[in-house]
């Protein structure tokens, strides 16, 4: 195969753009300006970047400026070329705005979901809990009235106790009331103790900040740590798990590390469940970033940054 096979094709965008820019600079008007918009829209659809387009623009401008048939007045050339470039870039600007809007929508949806979860957790804990208590009282009265049935009734009471415990468990897992009452650090310590108690893996929590944070930040922090910790407990077979939280300028920095089996990050994120992806999106919606370092046999380090939002 000859070298010509890998020579890049002449870029049509360059010549199309030069032609459209020359026409607009020479004659002006909305119709010729709209060609800039069209070129920008097509470039965006073709996956071109803004720096690429700016390169195309400067090359076209240089050619035009050195053309004797070009406009006599350099100031005029620069002004109308700028208008044309802005028009070409406007589809990119709209995409960027759309992205920002969807981040805001994401944040709203998360807050709504969280409120809904909070409502269900409270209903489970308080309302259903109350119903069970009244069944308990009635069973006790019945046992007194019909002594012969007492052993059977006691069995019912034991099942009720279990149901009550499960309800309480479920409501705490859905949304621990500690999070609202005592804040993120207490909630994370609570969670760490629960996971550690269940798995027998020691979980060490260390934080150099303790102050309360805006509610959406506390929720995101808690949810991301919860997912990372649940993953470590479920998948890592680690002998210890650490959670460290520090402040860095206007952000908090968090590291959840384990010394377990590790994993192939790229492929696990791609084929994995909602966990890792959800973490990234939840953080992204608040301007935070996620960074995962792991490899088979190397343990895992989940790091993230989250603006404190004050
Ligand atoms: N700390 C860890 N140690 C070892 N493997 C991990 C760890 N964290 C994640 N993984 C791997 O990454 C995969 C993807 O994690 P992710 O949280 O996205 O999904 P999941 O935990 O399998 O399911 P879900 O979170 O949706 O219930 C996991 O299935 C697991 O193989
Ligand atoms: Mg998971």
Describe the structure.
The chain is α+β, with helices and mostly antiparallel strands. The protein folds into 3 domains: 9-104; 107-173; 178-307, Heat Shock Protein 90. Helix content is 66%, strand content 11%. It contains 10 helices and 5 strands, in the order αααααααβαββααββ. The protein has helices spanning 12-27, 30-45, 50-66, 74-145, 150-174, 177-181, 184-199, 215-236, 265-271, 275-284; strands spanning 203-207, 241-248, 251-258, 289-294, 300-307. The protein has a 5-stranded mixed beta sheet with strand order 1-2-3-5-4, covered by helices on one side. β1, α8 (215-236) and β2 (241-248) form a beta-alpha-beta unit. α2 (30-45) crosses α4 (74-145), α7 runs parallel beside α8 and α8 (215-236) packs antiparallel against α10. The longest helix is centred in the middle third of the chain and has 72 residues, at 74-145. The model is unreliable at 1-5 (pLDDT under 50). Adenosine-5'-triphosphate is lined by residues 231-232, 235-236, 258, 260-263, 268, 272-276, 300.
SSE blueprint:
Blueprint: H1 12-27, H2 30-45, H3 50-66, H4 74-145, H5 150-174, H6 177-181, H7 184-199, E1 203-207, H8 215-236, E2 241-248, E3 251-258, H9 265-271, H10 275-284, E4 289-294, E5 300-307
Helix pairs in contact: 1-2, 1-3, 2-4, 3-4, 4-5, 7-8, 8-10
Bound molecules: adenosine-5'-triphosphate and magnesium ion.
Distance between the termini: 61 Å
What is the number of helices? 10
- Runs in which pLDDT lies below 50 for 5 or more consecutive residues are 1-5
CATH superfamily of the largest domain: Histidine kinase-like ATPase, C-terminal domain
Unique ligands = adenosine-5'-triphosphate, magnesium ion
- The structure class reads alpha+beta
How is the main sheet built? Answer: 5 strands, mixed
Order of helices and strands: HHHHHHHEHEEHHEE
Radius of gyration: 31 Å
Q: Percent of residues in helical segments?
A: 55-70%
User: How many E-type strands?
Assistant: 5
- Which topology of the largest domain does CATH recognise? Heat Shock Protein 90
């Amino acid at each position: 195969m000859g070298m010509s096979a890998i020579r890049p094709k002449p870029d049509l965008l360059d010549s199309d753009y030069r032609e459209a820019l020359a026409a607009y600079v020479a004659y002006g008007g909305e119709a010729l300006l709209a060609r800039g918009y069209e070129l920008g829209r097509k470039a965006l659809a073709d996956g071109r970047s803004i720096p690429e387009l700016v390169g195309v623009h400067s090359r076209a401008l240089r050619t035009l400026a050195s053309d004797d048939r070009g406009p006599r007045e350099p100031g005029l050339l620069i002004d109308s070329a700028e208008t044309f470039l802005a028009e070409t870039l406007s589809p990119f600007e709209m995409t960027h705005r759309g992205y920002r809007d969807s981040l805001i929508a994401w944040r709203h949806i998360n807050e709504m979901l969280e409120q809904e979860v909070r409502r269900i957790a409270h209903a489970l804990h308080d309302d259903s809990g109350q119903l069970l208590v009244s069944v308990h009282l009635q069973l006790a009265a019945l046992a007194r009235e019909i002594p012969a049935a007492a052993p059977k009734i006691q069995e019912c009471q034991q099942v009720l106790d279990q149901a009550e415990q499960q309800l309480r468990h479920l409501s705490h897992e859905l949304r621990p009331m500690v999070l609202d009452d005592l804040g993120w650090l207490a909630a994370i310590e609570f969670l760490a103790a629960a996971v550690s108690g269940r798995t027998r893996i020691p979980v060490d929590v260390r934080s150099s900040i303790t102050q309360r944070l805006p509610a959406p930040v506390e929720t995101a922090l808690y949810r991301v740590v919860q997912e990372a910790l649940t993953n470590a407990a479920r998948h890592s077979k680690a002998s210890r798990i650490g959670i460290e939280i520090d402040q860095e300028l206007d952000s908090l920095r968090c590291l959840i590390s384990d010394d377990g089996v590790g994993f192939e990050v790229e492929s696990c994120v791609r084929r994995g469940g909602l966990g890792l992806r959800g973490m990234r999106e939840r953080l992204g919606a608040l301007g935070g970033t996620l960074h995962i370092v792991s490899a088979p046999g190397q343990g895992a380090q989940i790091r993230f940054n989250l603006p404190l939002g004050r």
